[in-house]
Amino acid sequence: MLLGLITPVENELRIYGYENESNVKAYKPGIITKIIKNSYDKSEVILVKSNDIIFVYKNLTNVKVNVHDKISENQILGQILTINSENYLGFEIWNKNAEKLDPIKYLKNDL
After folding, report:
1. pLDDT one-digit tens code per residue, 45-55
2. Which end of the chain has fewer CB within 10 Å, C or N?
3. Which is it for the CA torsion 90, 94, 100, 105, positive or negative?
4. Side-chain half-sphere exposure of 29, counting CA atoms within 13 A
């Protein structure tokens, strides 16, 4: 299960899983706008547009969605990729100008 430990790093939350390949679920509904494949470590990055916000999910494997898919809240997007025994999801929130927002403040306002 996800949410072992949460560490903020330069406006990116690093959410550590308890086990290898923990499922990653969408925080909000939206449209998959881009999937980037990293040829170096085989990880994938998913960008989800939800209104004027873009949610970025980094360090994924076994991605279950495609570009232009409409996704729902809590839909499984993929799994966390373990690299060199590190098992975490990088999570960022951007505004419509692709500026990183502080995810702690954003999530706090959403509660």
Report:
1. 999 999 999 99
2. C
3. negative
4. 3
Q: Which among 46, 42, 43 is positioned nearest to 57, based on CA atoms?
A: 46
pLDDT in tens, 25-45: 999 999 999 999 998 888 999
Report how far apart, in Å, the C-alpha atoms of 8 and of each of 56, 69, 89 are: 14, 29, 11
0.70 surpassed by pTM: yes
The region that residue 6 occupies, defined by phi over 0 for left and psi between -120 and 50 for alpha, beta otherwise, is beta
What is the set of domains in the chain, with CATH numbers?
5-93 (2.70.70.10)
Q: 61, 95 in Cβ contact below 8 A?
A: no
Q: Smallest Cα–Cα separation from 92: which of 51, 54, 59? A: 54
